[in-house]
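#struct-pred

JT: dropping the chains for the assembly here, can someone run the whole complex?
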Amino acid sequence: MPTLEIEGRTFEVDEDGFLQDPDLWNEEVAKLFAKTEGIQELTDEHWKVVHYLRNYYLEFNIAPMIRKVCKDTGFKLKKIYELFPSGPAKGACKVAGLPKPTGCV
Amino acid sequence: MIDPMEEKLGQGVQKAPKTKKEKLGAPESRRWPIKSEFTPEMLAEMEKILPSKLNRVVAISLAGCIHCGLCSEACHYTASIPEDKTLLPAYKADRFRKWYKYRFDWAAKVFPSFVGAQPLTKELADDMYDKLWGACTMCRRCTFNCPMGVDYGMLVRAARGIMTQVGRVPKHLQETIDAHYNNGNNMAVPRDEFVETIEWIEEELQSEDGCENFKIPVDKKGAQYFLTLNPREPKYYPLTIQATAKVLNAAGVDFTISSRYWDLTNYAMFSGIDPDAKLFAQWQYEDVLRLECEYLLSGECGHGYRALRWEMPNWLGGVPFKITSMMELMADLIQKGRITLDKSVHAGKRFTYHDSCNIARSGGVLEEPRIIVRAAVDDFVEMEHNREDSFCCGGGGGALAMPEFSERRIRAGKIKAEEIRATSANVVLQSCHNCTDQLKEIVDHYGIKAKVMNLAELVAPALIL
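RK: done, full complex below.
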């Protein structure tokens, strides 16, 4: 199992950097993962998306459609891509500690 | 009796239907058993399966290699990582060929080592797993350079099928197939949420200048074109749907999107399980008939295009409708003058085009993308190797769905990255979602400043409405 070391902490991740055990996630982990995605500081807007993804995943065991993310957070699609430059799947879901989605991502 | 949902959806923009819950996908859910190691029982099972996988193409490809080495320079793995001789196509294919020879080559009965025959041991099987899942994207560039006509793509698919059948398949890849099997699309997008997303994108499209009357009709019976999508579009990247719909509306194309089997992907082509691949094709085939469309229209997607255009008619013994793609349709619309483009939108930027292997080499769509790009931009530069000779980006064959081989995948993308760098392009165009992500990753990894976008995203902003 590959590991990812960020600032002295080690995480078990898959080779695309997604957290292997979603239960290990907390806000500190999110901050560390954000750095690997090139996000130096998580703003309130980032947190709104991250918490939304996290809660949705815990309830439904799957990542929400981008439509739901936009509707429920009130952010425009372009805003989400600005907040997470590597996209909702690879960027936002990874920071929120969700597993790698199935399909072409 | 008219199904109220069908009636509602046929009119285009309507509230999302929430009442009817039709089970899409297979009636019974399944989870493919996945094994982390080859056991003696699995090897014995593979021995039983092998003969069933030997069709003419596979048997000739296994028997035909003369080890001339011409494939060596054709492969993006060897071109990018020349120091690793185990990545040579002939070496990789030999992981399977040695076993085949041990079973079927008469000379191997007398002198096994003389013909390179080996019994199937755990060691050989492990090697086969590593090389044929993790070091081949079935891009077939070596096949084009093979004097014996060895079809590596088909050979690898057969080997993968045998391994998958005994459970030795990369977990994430198989989960993607199971998601498709269980839900009718590979990201488990529910039908009502899909329709809501399309309605939302229609609203977004209508808010663009000059697009107030544009529509994205869902389940419109008798539409000329049945547009299919990659699930990552509705799930995460709907702007490509918006761009595609904008182009089709601007040209006055009569199209529709099904609320049922709109997923054009077919990952079973990568796992080598033909009954799954055929089943997914069958669902879509029936859906095109349900909506009585003249054309099945593949969105921009490499393996999806190949699965629909070239494999579906084989799997199903022919189809009563025509099959085309957005690449071909957009080129046709430009040539017939049904859309006109303003090149100044893209002025000051240089563009190059990456050919997806399944669209170009295995699909024959070579000039259409160039017709589109030349109509939309002034500064277009080809990569050194292009069209059917293009190097794979490294993301094909399901590679993006196998995180255990990600590091090698990025290393194998070096040759493509260097060819992109040499063009000095600001934008890399392509027509495939797998290529999109791989190109974004290698451009970033090898320090190239270039954006990646598909052809609809190129054409949509340049449309003169």
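JT: nice. The interface with chain B takes residues 14-16, 18, 62-63, 65-68, 70-71, 77, 86-90, 100-105 of chain A (CB under 8 Å). The first helix of chain A runs from residue 27 to 36.
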